């Protein structure tokens, strides 16, 4: 009897996430390469949050407020198998600044969120 096993893990995070096209109601996020952890990706999670601009706050106070705010999950409809190169986010509010966080799942669990600090 032979048992073959493969070493799989949770997926990594995207090498980059960049805003490639922006309109007054939508944005296209271009997703960089990702390590699938040796197992097919099963889901993409996209979260966003509004960034509050208050000229009276210090940079530290703004950062503290942002870390305290909860992320909102953006509903995505994806085909299977998941092919990841971009995501279109629609129905954004005009004159609002957003920050995005993207992560993927495979059968072993959730990968870390892509780390990028730019806001749009």
Structure report:
By secondary structure, this protein is mainly β. Helix content is 8%, strand content 36%. It has one helix and seven strands; from the N terminus they run βββαββββ. A hairpin with a 3-residue loop joins β1 and β2. The longest helix has 10 residues. The termini are far apart.
Structural class: mainly beta
Gyration radius (Cα, Å) is: 17 Å
Reading the helices and strands in chain order gives: EEEHEEEE
Poorly predicted parts: none
Distance between the termini: 56 Å
How much helical structure, as a percent, in the residues?
A: under 10%
Task: Summarize the helices and strands and which ones pair or pack.
Elements: E1 17-22, E2 26-31, E3 41-51, H1 59-68, E4 72-74, E5 86-90, E6 97-106, E7 109-110
Notable characteristics:
globular
Write a concise synopsis of the structure shown.
The protein is mostly beta strands and 120 residues long. It has one helix at 59-68; strands spanning 17-22, 26-31, 41-51, 72-74, 86-90, 97-106, 109-110. Strand 6 and strand 7 (109-110) form a beta hairpin.
